[in-house]
Structures are given as C-alpha cells and as structure tokens.
C-alpha cells in the first residue's frame, strides 16, 4: 500500500490547505390564435441552464405547454413560428432530462413528425444565399443541436423516437439526406460571402455538427451503408474539412474527423458485404462505438480541465498540480479503440500508455490529498495512506553531491514518539517505517501551490553519533544535528524535490 506524508502547520491550517509552510525568508401564433411576444421582446420564463434528473419545476412545465401550443408553418420560408418552435425546443432540452424526453416524444409523434419533413423541404426552393443562410441559422442548426444533445442521444427512453427523426432526415433511398447535405455544403462553400447577423456558429463547427448527424443517421439505418448518395456526401464533407479545418478550432476539427472515420469504417463494411438485398436484417447487437468523447486540453468541448490538462503529453507534469488535485472533472483516458484517440499511429499508442499509467499511479494520490485538503481529517476511503505531520517549518537548505538541493524541515514529533526516551524514540522511527528513504511528501504552501518532495537519504534516523570509545567529537557538538529522534518535541527530515525544473525550484525557494 503506497504511503503519502503530508506536512502542515496546525495553527494556520484551513480547509483549503494541506501543508502550510511559512518559508521564512413576428410574433409566433398560439393555439388560441393570439400572438405571442415577438423575439426581440420575449417574455417567456428564463430558466437557468442546469440539466437535472429530478422533478421539473412548474416554470419548466409551463414553458413546455406553451411550446406544445405553437403552430409552426415550416413550408413558409420566413415563418417566424417555425423559428420560435425550434429555438424553444432547444432551450427546453437544455433544462431537464424528463422535459427533454417529452420534447423528443412530441416531435416524433404522428402529428409533429411531418413538421421535420416540411422543415427540410424549403431547402431546395430557397433562392438567394441570404435565404439559405437564414434557414441554416434558424432551422437546421437548432434542429441538429436538438437531435445530437447528450440528454437525447444517450436516453434509452426516447431511443425509438430519436431513430424515427433520423429516418426522416434520410428519406427514401437517402434522397432527402442528399438534399440536406447539398444545402449545407453549398453554404459552407460560400460562407465568406454571407453577412451573418448576430451570433452564429463557425463553418468548421457546422461541419462537425453535420458529421455527427450523418454518423447517427447511418448508425440508425444500416440498410443505407452502401448508398451512393451517402458515399458522395462523405467525400464532399471530407474535402471541406481539409479546407476549413484549422488549428484555431482544433476541437471541432478533431470531432469532425472522428465522425468521418466512423462513417468510412461503416461504409467499408457495407461495401465488403455481398448483395445486401438478399441478406436478412440482423437483430444482433451493434458494435459498441462512442461517437463523442471529451478530449484532452484545448480539444475538450468544455475547455481545459485544469492547468495540467494538455493534448500533448510532453507538456504534462508528472506530478499533479493544485488545480488538477482540486478539479472535479474526470481526467481524459483514451479508450481501447484507436479510432477514438485524438492522435493516431505510434504517437497515439504512446499517448494512451502514458495517460493510463499516470492515472493508475496518481488517481488514489489525488483523491487522498483532495480529501485531506477539503475535510482536514484522516483519509479513510482511498487506498493511499496519508500521514499528516503538524507544525512544519523549514530550518535550512543544503546541497548534496548526488541529490543536489535539499531542504531541512522541522515538524512536531508524533505523539507516540514524544513520550519515549531518545534511544527508544530512535527504535520507534526505525520500526514504524515513517518517512523512509524515497517516501513521497506533499506540501501545499500558503500561495496555494503544491510541491512534491521525496525523503532524502541524508535524513538521520539515529541519535548523535559517538566514536567507538563513547567520546563525542567537539566539532560535532558545536554543529546542529538534525534527525528524526534527537529532539523530544521536534523531528527533522531532509527533503528533495521530485521535479527539479526551474519553476519547481523557484516555487520551493
């Protein structure tokens, strides 16, 4: 069982500190025919974004009922009700799990499902580039965000309803899918010519979102895996991704690439099959594949988890930082499927091995330190043993030939050793295996930085040495002797930094 020692000052210990060392030195229409408030002066209830699984609030239920009463006319290109209907649906699924399920069930119902088909039909008749841009922004984007939302695609309750919506996207022989993606690709090709009003997503984000929709359409309709329209769409999107993919938006570029890789693998499987029309539909389980994954560093959808979260492993510090220890987000761990990694080939293999080994080594350590910091009590729920030493104060710095910079730290003698005589105290330190050579020591200073040390071999575990005749050297008598058992009230340990980079040395000094 690994052991971690924590040294802290008792008088100044707070719940956020683990080792305190004072280093001295057009209004939509409702069902009753009355106009709703226009978009620029909406009086709908604003519900803070917080996807919950408990009982929805009354305000959320009221908003859901108001949405159900809307009567959109998507066949009319400039119909504001359709815009409001899709925007409100997207807002609703952001709030509550059960509300999101109700929205999807309503959209996939017999009376509402044709609305999705009618929403896509004007794409072929819209004449001007401005009309196409308006349809993309106010119809296609919200619709795509609805059907790819995590509370929707991850729900078993509305699994059938989601599949019905994706089949509407597909159409007969993938003709509607070809129309939809032809519309999207045309806008992407002319993106720079469009004067977008207000906030809108970027071209690469549009490509990424479209790739996710296409991947899920194929996932729910295996009979179209060898459709020529689908193959043509994939080639067109791949070409645009190569043109519009940029380092400035690495997350969406990587996500789009992963979706396309998944689609290509599915299409390769389809093309390798014999005549699919003579093969009965399989009822077996589909291969497990995670379409979305929260990548590391700046590739993460929600931004970096902490200051030690990087896409490139060479930038990762071996020991956890204070932000990493206190972070509530799960660390990025690559799956066994190499197609889901953010790096491919040998670099991807090395990346995966490093991250898994580091997490296996440090997970319990982070949990133990975090628990000790937050609760200021003994850690009982992790495998890593944490021993806390109180009233730590640095008393000296020295340089050793082999270990380099070392710190001499004084702390309170453990209560069990304090009542013993000097010789018995030396035996106690030897037999209890505390602060043995190489033991890990974590120190959190008042500035909030975390430093990791190892116990140096220079640490004295016996009382002051005497010569063979029992006579003490006069020079030794004058020099201070720092050891674990020498003093009844205080123990002294020699520590060396685990990481000796410039920043760590500066922080320790």
Automatic annotation (TrEMBL):
Residues 28-39 have a biased composition (Basic and acidic residues). Residues 1-60 are annotated as: Disordered. Residues 40-55 have a biased composition (Polar residues). This is Uncharacterized protein. It comes from Colletotrichum gloeosporioides (strain Cg-14). The lineage of its organism: Eukaryota, Fungi, Dikarya, Ascomycota, Pezizomycotina.
């Amino acid at each position: 069982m690994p052991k971690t020692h924590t040294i802290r000052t008792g008088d100044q210990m707070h719940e956020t500190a683990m080792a305190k060392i004072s280093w001295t030195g057009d209004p939509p229409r409702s069902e009753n025919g009355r106009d709703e408030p226009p978009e620029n002066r909406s009086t709908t209830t604003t519900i803070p974004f917080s996807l919950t699984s408990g009982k929805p609030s009354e305000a959320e239920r009221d908003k859901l009922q108001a949405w159900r009463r809307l009567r959109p006319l998507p066949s009319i290109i400039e119909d504001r009700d359709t815009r409001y209907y899709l925007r409100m649906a997207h807002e609703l699924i952001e709030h509550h799990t059960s509300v999101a399920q109700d929205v999807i069930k309503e959209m996939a119902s017999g009376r509402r499902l044709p609305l999705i088909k009618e929403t896509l039909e004007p794409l072929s008749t819209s004449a001007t580039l401005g009309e196409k841009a308006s349809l993309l922004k106010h119809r296609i984007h919200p619709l795509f965000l609805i059907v790819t939302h995590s509370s929707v695609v991850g729900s078993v309750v509305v699994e059938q309803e989601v599949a019905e919506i994706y089949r509407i996207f597909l159409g007969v022989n993938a003709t509607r899918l070809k129309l939809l993606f032809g519309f999207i690709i045309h806008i992407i090709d002319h993106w720079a010519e469009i004067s977008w009003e207000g906030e809108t997503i970027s071209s690469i984000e549009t490509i990424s979102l479209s790739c996710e929709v296409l991947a899920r359409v194929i996932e729910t309709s295996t009979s179209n895996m060898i459709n020529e329209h689908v193959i043509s769409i994939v080639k067109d999107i791949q070409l645009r991704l190569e043109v519009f993919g940029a380092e400035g938006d690495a997350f969406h570029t990587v996500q789009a690439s992963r979706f396309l890789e998944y689609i290509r693998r599915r299409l390769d499987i389809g093309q390798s099959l014999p005549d699919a029309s003579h093969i009965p539909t399989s009822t077996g389980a589909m291969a497990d594949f995670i379409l979305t994954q929260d990548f590391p560093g700046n590739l993460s959808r929600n931004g970096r988890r902490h200051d030690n979260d990087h896409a490139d492993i060479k930038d990762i510090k071996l020991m956890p930082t204070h932000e990493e220890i206190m972070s509530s987000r799960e660390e990025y761990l690559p799956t066994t499927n190499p197609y889901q990694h953010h790096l491919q080939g040998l670099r991807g293999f090395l990346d995966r091995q490093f991250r898994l080994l580091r997490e296996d080594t440090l997970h319990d350590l982070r949990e133990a330190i975090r628990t000790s910091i937050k609760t200021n009590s003994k850690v009982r729920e992790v495998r890593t043993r944490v021993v806390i030493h109180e009233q730590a104060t640095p008393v000296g710095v020295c340089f050793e030939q082999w270990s380099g910079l070392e710190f001499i730290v004084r702390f309170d003698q453990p209560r069990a050793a304090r009542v013993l005589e000097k010789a018995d105290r030396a035996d106690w330190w030897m037999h209890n295996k505390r602060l043995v050579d190489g033991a890990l020591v974590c120190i959190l200073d008042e500035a909030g930085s975390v430093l990791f040390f190892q116990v140096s071999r220079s640490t004295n575990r016996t009382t002051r040495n005497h010569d063979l005749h029992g006579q003490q050297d006069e020079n030794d008598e004058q020099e201070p002797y720092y050891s674990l058992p020498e003093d009844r009230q205080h123990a002294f340990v020699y520590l060396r930094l685990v990481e000796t980079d410039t920043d760590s040395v500066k922080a320790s000094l």
